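Quick review question:
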């Protein structure tokens, strides 16, 4: 039997939503072991002078507890 836990995190990237997700998972992996997946529940962009400057995601990361 395994037990999983969910941790909500936010991540940003100046490049893309995909990069924000990848950076968020990579950073979470430094402190959370056994990451099994993530649910991206919010995506937004920050703009300046009519141009996108930052891609932001909020996601719930699922990991199995040892």
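Suggested answer, residue by residue:
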């Amino acid at each position: 039997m395994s037990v999983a836990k969910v941790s909500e995190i936010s991540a940003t990237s100046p490049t893309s939503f995909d990069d924000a997700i990848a950076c968020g998972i990579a950073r979470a992996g430094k402190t959370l072991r056994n990451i099994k997946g993530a649910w991206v529940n919010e995506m937004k962009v920050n703009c300046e002078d009519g141009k996108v400057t930052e891609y932001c995601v909020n996601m719930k990361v699922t990991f199995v507890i040892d």
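Why it works: The two ends are 11 Å apart (CA to CA). The longest helix spans residues 17-28.
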